[in-house]
Design a protein that fits this description.
2 copies of one chain form a homodimer. Chain A has 175 residues and is mainly α. Helices cover 67% and strands 6% of the residues of chain A. Chain A has a two-stranded antiparallel sheet with strand order 1-2. Chain A binds a DNA duplex (23 and 23 nucleotides) through helix 2 and helix 6.
Chain lengths: 175, 175
DNA sequence: TATTGTTATACTCTATAACTATA
DNA sequence: TATAGTTATAGAGTATAACAATA
């Protein structure tokens, strides 16, 4: 057993090199290379770091931007609709919207027809900030888009949407 | 103000329909449709649910499978290498590997050359379970792959890898 | 009885820092 | 002085259930 360990040890790792040889060694992804989830998570992780940094000057994070972008595209939507579409959940949305209201970026207007419901809107200030954040977010993807032709990027998005709708349709069928 | 709210209320939401008209209404993604992160997150979310269910019978989750797959592809790798490549962090890996060792799926072998280091290996039992989990994971992507031609799927993966490496290379340049 | 929004809770993930033993 | 692994802690994110007001 010990001999085995030592053998693989010397085979796999060159301990004669400085310590940073291990630090910079690239692992073989093995079976993970064939898993869509692995590739998606890796890419999303790198993008997430950039977006976090890009949004930091605004004092907000991705969830708040997503909420604002969806409210802008769907003025008067309810919190529950927003939660479902934004991939958030309705409980988390409460604190998030409280924050946006305190900042003066969004308002909750109780519906006069269904008093349970809040109709959500952006303020002009909220729209302005949302657009600035959108520009900042797009910049984080800029270098990536330079590595693709416009046609390729369009196809890339089409693939992502197609994959999403295949799974979403299957989930709806199961209900 | 109140007139505005009511006007948009009646414009955007048909309150005369049953309550579930709001529940099933599809929101416009708006600007989010142009954000790579949004599409990635949506797809990863749907896949994640399926993978979670597929791995449940094994009593393990994605992180454990990822670790096992990477150890299998890189026998004798260190925890720190595994953390970097798997997108985990070295602290989380400690508990994860404790669990895999208790189950008899993995072993930590202290390197005889650098006594700080653990060389990681899968046991035969661990390899068996890892392959079963891989099959289960691939099944969750099966319906998705049916919606793509082999060429399209290959291109899809190539796009994801290219995007990842563009950003990863840029990050390395910044250090 | 069901739904919207709210609150509270717990559990997971992640990030960070500090500590040890080695180098 | 730096690195591998460990431990501890706090923060964000997520999932859940219960609740009040309303339908």
């Amino acid at each position: 057993m010990k001999a085995d360990t030592d053998a693989v040890d010397s085979m796999q790792v060159d301990d004669t090199k400085p310590a940073n040889s291990a630090s910079t060694r690239k692992l073989d992804p093995g079976l993970m290379a064939h898993r869509l989830s692995f590739r998606l998570r890796g890419l999303l992780g790198l993008l997430g770091e950039r977006v976090l940094a890009a949004f930091a000057p605004f004092g907000l994070r991705s969830g708040s931007f997503t909420a604002m972008a969806l409210i802008k595209a769907n003025p008067g939507c309810s919190q529950i609709e927003l939660a479902r579409e934004g991939g958030l959940d309705k409980s988390s949305l409460v604190a998030l919207l409280n924050d946006l209201e305190e900042r003066g970026y969004a308002i909750r207007a109780r519906s006069t027809r269904d008093k349970r419901r809040s109709n959500l809107f952006l303020t002009p200030e909220g729209e302005k900030v949302m657009h600035e954040m959108f520009e900042a977010a797009m910049k984080t993807e800029a270098s990536l888009r330079e590595g693709f032709t416009p046609d390729e990027m369009q196809l890339f998005f089409a693939f992502l949407e197609r994959a999403f709708f295949i799974l979403a349709a299957e989930d709806r069928g199961k209900d």
